[in-house]
Structures are given as structure tokens and as C-alpha cells.
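Deliverable D5.2: sample structural annotation.
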Amino acid sequence: MKYIKHIIYLSTIYIFSSCDIGTIIPGEVGDIIIDVESTWSPNGYTIGYIGVTTEMTSGMFSVDTTGSNLNEISVPDLISFPDWSPDGQWLVYSKYGNIFKRNIADNIEIQLTFIGGNRFPSWSNDGVWIAFHSNKDSPNGMSFIWKMKSDGSELKRIIYTPEDGEVKHPDWFPDGIRLVVIRSLLSHRSPEVCIIDTSGNTISVLTNDFSYDRYPKVSGRNEIVYQRDDNLGEICFIKADGSNHKLLIPNSINPNWSPDGLKISYTNKIDGRIWIMSRDGTYKKRVSY
């Protein structure tokens, strides 16, 4: 099956974003985004990702870190940013603005939210909670961080500060108390990487570079990677204390950590495929084809 995620229009390729249906992100000529939004199985050897068909419907696929054993693990659908459960039995993802989870063994899908624009789910390390961002109950349409039990119960918004801008793209720290997020600072209108706690208190602002930051992910070593939109996609690294902030690799998007925190998966914008690299940006290897 051929997976395509681009349309050529005059001199520009327009890339459809599966996380925000209807949004079109302009890219450069030559950009071919095919395999995106990778997530690691807890076994550390399997990577899931989204592939998009010629009919512009997306499906969930998996491949070993060796590049072998390609499998389709969900029916084609418009899903985005999957996250593997810590026990390896479930995938949680956003679809049509709501959060769903799918049992990998029997392919049964369960809807967890039923109203509001809910996206970017993240499973806590103990498997009890799912965090996500949502514009539910937000009269201004802005999105903030919510959490719920993994069965959809105890739904609660944990931060609502419209005067300070949106808070999106949560990912859990190993301690289950803190989350790394992006927060739109109204002072310069660009989302920055921040750390909050589950009471909604801001602990620290890690970046303040006027760049558009997205999709932060934290490892078991309390190290963070994120996508910076400079130069149409860069992957950056920063420690939770704000130190060692650096560019890891250009022309790349959607970083994610391996369970041991030693490797990073990402989409290479040159060939549109899933690659992995060491945590310091070395030893790069393509795994999807």
C-alpha cells in the first residue's frame, strides 16, 4: 500500500495535518510527509506510527526498530498522536476531536470522551491517568490540559488560564505529578515548553526563544525533546532543569522517547519516514519504508 501525505499545488506542497483536520500546513517543494507521530511500545523494540493512504485516510502501523515486521494494527481512520499504554495492551489516540483507546489484541475500540475538541492524549507511567488538551467548557475556544482515568472516569480540567494563553500537548513525567506542556505566552504569541503540576501550577518555563515549539516528550531520565518549527522542523533537547538546551537535528519533526530514554524516534522530513537516533543525536537509522 502506498502512503501519501502531500498534494502538489503550483510550487508548494501542502501537507494535511492529521491532528487538526482541515488545517493545511505549507511545506517546501520536496517535502514528503508519509509516516508520522511515532510512539514506542513498552517492549522497546516496536514503534507505532500513522500512515496516510492515497484516499487521505490514516491508519496505525507498527514496525520493529530493525525495520522489519511491518504490521497494520488498526483499521484506516483519521486518528492522530497515538500513545502506547505502559502495559503494552492499549493505544490511546484522538479521532474526530475525541479520545479513544484500542485494545491491540482484539482490536476493540472504546470511546473515552464525547464532547469538545480533545487531542494529544498521554498515558501516565502507572497507566492510571490519561492527560490531553481540550477546548471543552472553554468559552473562548482555547485549549487547556485535562486528565481522566484510563476508563474515561474522573474527567477534570487541571489548568485554565485564558489570560496567559493556551496550554497544550501534555506529556507525563515519571513521577506522575508533573507534565511537560507547551504554553502560549501572550507576551510574544509563541508557544514555549513549560512544566506544570497536576494542580495546574506552572513550575518552570524552559524555553523563551520566540520560536513555535510543539510536541514535547519527557523521558524516564527527565530529559525533554520537542519540535521547534524553525526551518520547517527542528528537534531540540533540554533537561528538566533548563540546562543543556541544544538543537539535535534539523529537517525533522514529531520526536518521541524510547522506554529506556536512550533513543529518540522521529519523522525525517527529507524522506518522510520514521527514523531513530541516540539521545545525543548520533547513530541515526531509518526504520520505516
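Annotation notes: The chain has a mean pLDDT of 86. The chain has one domain: 7-286.
The annotation will be released with the project's public dataset once the embargo ends.
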